Amino acid sequence: MSARSRNAIALAAAILVVVLALPHLLKPYYLGLTSKMLIFALFAMSLDLILGYVGLASLGHAAFFGVGAYTAGLLLLRAGVGNAIAFPAALVASTAIGAGIGLLALRARGSYLLMITFALAQVVWSIAFGWRSLTNGDDGMPGIPRPNFGWSLDNTTGFFYFVVIVVAIAALLLAMMVRSPFGLALRGIRESESRMQALGYNIWRYKFVAFVLASSFAGLAGVLYAYYNHFVGPEYLSVIQSAEALIMVILGGAGTLIGPAIGAAVIVFLEDFISSMSERWTLILGVIYVLVVLFAPRGLIGLFDDFRTRRARP
Amino acid sequence: MIVLSVEQLFKNFGGVAAVAGVSFEIGPGERRVLLGPNGAGKTTLFHTIAGSIPATSGRINLLGQDITRLRPDRRARLGLARTFQITNLFPRLTVLESVLLAIGGANAKGLQLIFPISSYRDLYARAHHLLEEWGLAGIAGRTVRDLSYGEQRQLELVLALAGQPKLLLLDEPTAGLSPAETARVVAMVQRLSRETTVLMIEHDMDVAFELADRITVMHQGRLIAEGDKDAIRANRQVAEIYLGTE
After folding, report:
1. Would the CB atoms of B116 and A209 count as touching at under 8 Å?
2. What is the pTM of this model?
3. Which of A49, A82, B19, B129 is deepest in the core (most CB within 10 A)?
4. Looking at the domain assignment, is residue A162 inside a domain?
5. By residue range, what is the domain housing residue A183?
């Protein structure tokens, strides 16, 4: 067995021990917060697939998160179907809306792409906000039931395990994708579109597939968050949610999967911690963003790398 | 069979015709050098042949197929490869990763998004072989942006070669290189299989005359002369506008 696969097994074993121990170590409130961190880690990783790997900045990623959550909420509360249908339907809906928005938005790039994804996501938001008879408008829809697999998800520990399993599978799929020839091609497109085209790559197809996949994973995070809160409201779709995801990715370090996950955990924790003391959370979030851009442009992962290389060659 | 034929090609930018009715043909295995003073329209002609700038009118045929309206990636998959005048690489990828991309693009079968790239043994074998063959094996693991300019120009050429193109467009492959590096790039072009037809823009007259089978001279968007080296050397019009009277 190679040293690398031995390390991987050791890491997997360590993660398993931590996951099993956490419910015993943390108070239920903090275990719940850990579930939220994992959900947003998935959301941030899905955004990083397009932001960090392909280099496409989207300010509308919450649209897919919210469409996943709303689809599940509407089917469960309005159509009266069970989670066996609502859960996959939510993934299909976020994937479909990702394909639609991708078709419209991916003609643009750079700040134009930022604006068009923002505008399209606002359209989705305004439907959820305005169609009161269906969505309850800004009151949102409370009472979303969690799925039931015979083990109860209604207690914090059961739900935590559910989130761990779903996010782990999703993260594994994302990790496989970024290591595949497809993932390398995405990084190639980020580095030079014209060169990739000259090498024979249909870059639009790669961008589109990456965008749609990112939407699916964002939708998955959205459904999990709807379960987490037993609720969905228009703030799930808001530009603040999209911007927060961008900041999670940039804070953690774009272009890696672990970076955005760490960024998400830090932001979720700080939001909870600071909100308990002050109402100025968004102001402080803005300050964090400015500090990261000024002093750690490659994010926390970048800082860590710099620290390691400095220790390696003093 | 004619590898590349260009008929009455025009490219207008506003009122300016950068390429004004160009027609020429290149036969299989030929090394053709495109000469001309700055602003003659050589690079624009390259862009229209490669597809990165659409032609205003005219026809471009690659191996008998009309490619005038095809996207650049479609042309690449038909066997057209190019280098760029201004180095255009993947700064944050390694040399090996760049070559893997170059080989993969030419034979892309679907998106391949499940298995890790390291499991594609044949792809790796071909990449290592290519790096060995062109003397870049020693820098396979280096990040592209950390390479010297000369190494980057060599990598440009290797990326273009990776897909075993039928037609290779080289836009000033030796621009900005030291004499030693220039000699290395010239040797690389000379080593190319005659399966690959080469059309290159070159400003260095020594390089041009060393590599060319035939030379085409462009001036103000038009072709004004074409012939073998001796014919071009003897051409008075070429001497006047390109070589000057220095």
Report:
1. no
2. 0.91
3. B19
4. yes
5. 29-238
